[in-house]
Amino acid sequence: NPGGLIVPGFTTLVCLVENIFPPSLTVSWTVAGAGVARGVTLGPFVPNPDLTFVRISRISVTPRPGDVVACVVTSGKDNATTVVAYWAPPQLQIVPERSGPALALVCYAWGFSPAEITLRWLRNGDIIGDNVGDTVGDTVGDTSGQTRALPVGDGTFRAQVTIQVPPGTSGDTFECLALHPSLEEPLRVTWAPGLSPRLSLMVALAVLALLLGLLLFTFGLCRYLSTGYTPLPGDTRAGYAPLPGDTYAGSI
């Protein structure tokens, strides 16, 4: 059961495979899902005192943003292939969570490897606290309750960082920033306060009702103007219908 670890360097990734027995396996690399041989070196099997072996492979590469670099181990005993480590950039998303009047912002990072990641919150461009993958507590700036990256099971990791947004932050902009070895520059996502989903729905329904009423009024007005005035039976003058025996010809 070999284990694997990628140690990031400037442009060189190291895949360390341990607990090998018997000494029969190959180590290869893929970049963005395609096998690569250029820049790859494979060391010999190195014995341990417990009769297992270690093998190291290196690749010199500069991953582009979004590229996934994987170290792939193929066992010679059963020809089984295992991806032991990834070099994958994180994905970020900010999710607001409201409990009564309190509002919390959770920044989720997932799909990244190796596990080393730095998550920070910014408020109006200023860093809140100085923390690595922590959970910010009851108020903005409280750096209690640290957390860490957790394995997902597919070779990647996930992490999250949370802040409680105090009242009076209307108009402020909150930003989650991620620093990871696979990124050439920090990854950022932004969140700004807006209308609640319920209030947004009410506003949308009010606007829809207003537009529908305006449409009906316009349709009725156009129909009235197109038909014109239709006199009543027996009407001999515009606006006046004489009664039987009426001889008055003047105007009212």
Automatic annotation (TrEMBL):
It comes from the Eukaryota. The keyword Membrane applies. SMART domains: IGc1. Keywords: Membrane, Transmembrane, Transmembrane helix. The chain crosses the membrane at residues 199-222. InterPro entries: Ig-like_dom, Ig-like_dom_sf, Ig-like_fold, Ig_C1-set, MHC/Immunoglobulin. PROSITE patterns: IG_LIKE. Residues 1-84, 90-190 form the Ig-like domain. This is HLA class II histocompatibility antigen, DM beta chain-like. It comes from Geospiza fortis.
